[in-house]
Amino acid sequence: MAQILIIDDDSTTQLLLERTLIMQGYDITLASDGEEGLIKAKAIRPALIICDWIMPRKNGLEVCNQIKSTPELSTTFFILLTSLDSVEDRVKGLDAGADDFLCKPIEMHELKARVRAGLRLHQLSRDLQNQKQLLEAELAEAAEYVSTILPEPLQHPSLKIDACFIPSRQLGGDSFDYFWLDDRHLVFYLLDVSGHGLQASLPSLAVINLLRSRGLSNVDYYQPNTVLQGLNQAFQMSDRNDKYFTIWYGVYDRETCNLTYSSAGHPPAILLAPAFKTLEQRLKTPGVPVGMFPNIQYVNASCKITAKSSLYVFSDGIYEIEPQANSHWGLDRLIDLLKKYQQTPERDLQRLLQYIRTWHPNFQFEDDLSILQIDFS
User: Fold this and answer.
1) Torsions phi, psi for 116 (to 5 deg)
2) Where are the domains of the chain?
3) How many C-beta atoms lie closer than 10 Å to residue 154's C-beta?
4) Does the structural domain 150-376 have CATH classification 3.40.190.10?
5) Higher pLDDT among residues 151 and 319, named by residue
6) Are 241 and 257 in contact (CB under 8 A)?
7) Looking at the domain covering 3-138, what would its CATH class be?
8) CB–CB of 353/363 below 8 Å?
9) Residue 325 banded pLDDT, cuts 50, 70, 90
10) In what order do the strands lie in the sheet containing 48-52?
């Protein structure tokens, strides 16, 4: 049985509405002024409210405004009862949040029809709200699963890896991984799928699972360019799949201290020498994002890693942000910040993000953000 609250200071109008709606099978509660109506609305959470406009102790507009700003009453259908019929008055009512109007004197057939329509819309709003809550719960579970897939920080005598991932929504298209190919060769990569949310997270997870299982055929996992070529064949865009991704992929030989890498449309990884030198190398190779065109040939590059160096691999979400007005932020500014961060005695990625917030207190991440920090012993 639908619960309806009638708020009106006129006892005759109360009685007329109550009797009419009880005969229609509704459960009716009465209130004689705005303040009493708000108290009863919060107590019973009615499906529909019929409220007079002109009343003592809060008028109908004030009641409507407070009802609509109360989360647990947000789906309650609100009918404003009024003898005011000008366009300006109706605009005021709509701006306050009213869903419908009833003009005095009340026509009973119109009352019944508007109540039926209001209750249908209330039920539809409740159903949509419930579906939204279920979807959010499922997305939260999926986000928790994604967090379990991503690797834990790595501690090794020759290096250590820390990572940070902040999705722009509950799920994001960024992902990363690192694992040993054998006792001396370590793989680490970071990819960024176009778009956001579930559609971006699914191919991202697929790439992680495929590379961990070494499921790509005719691929030498010690050669980054062949890995990218294998991924490009496996994840081609189509009419049903418009996703592509950028990736930076490296293989480090801990015995020779040689890093071999290849990238596909991804921002350069930044290699910084020990703190007292703060020398910078931008590690990037030419290549379009994976999935855009078939039969693309990717290339390798390599460099020597000196002791006490650090490598930063990140997605563009860390520097493509909305900063304060009239303030420039981009890759060069990020690299300058990394150099300052490199000189701090105790470095962790949360501190780096705090530095960004210090530089731009009002910034907002518009994209997924992920970053790897590899410190070489």
Assistant:
1) -60, -45
2) 3-138, 150-376
3) 17
4) no
5) 151
6) no
7) alpha beta
8) no
9) very low
10) 27-31, 3-7, 48-52, 77-82, 100-103
